[in-house]
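Let's practice the habit of predicting before peeking. Look at the sequence and jot down your guess about where helices and strands might fall. Then scroll down.
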Amino acid sequence: MFELDLRSRAPLYEQLVDKIKELIINNVLKPDEQLPAVRVLASELTINPNTIQKAYRELEYREYIYSIPGKGSFVKPAVPENNTARLQTLENELSRIVSEMLYLGAPPQEIITRVKTQLAKNGGGKNG
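Done guessing? Here is the structure:
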């Protein structure tokens, strides 16, 4: 489920954070589903358990997962009312991407078409 590129310049914990985040966003990992135990995942990936722990801490900080002492880490269900700051960050990122696409010569209609294509691929989002 988790493949890390040991030759990448990106730190292993960041690669793991990105991979788990992607699995959560794409609904492969479901809300309240338990993540693999730190030691189990460390042994599967043959990396230091501290690296897994650091990734889990970062995911918890970003509110993608939650931990229950003695039980493990679990996927946090999305709460639409709680995402204002994160949505603002993503909107800023989208603005930067659109500006760059325009700079590179993409016509506005092509950008709109690409956004619509992405929405169609993702089922249009949970809210429609």
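How did you do? The longest strand covers residues 65-68.
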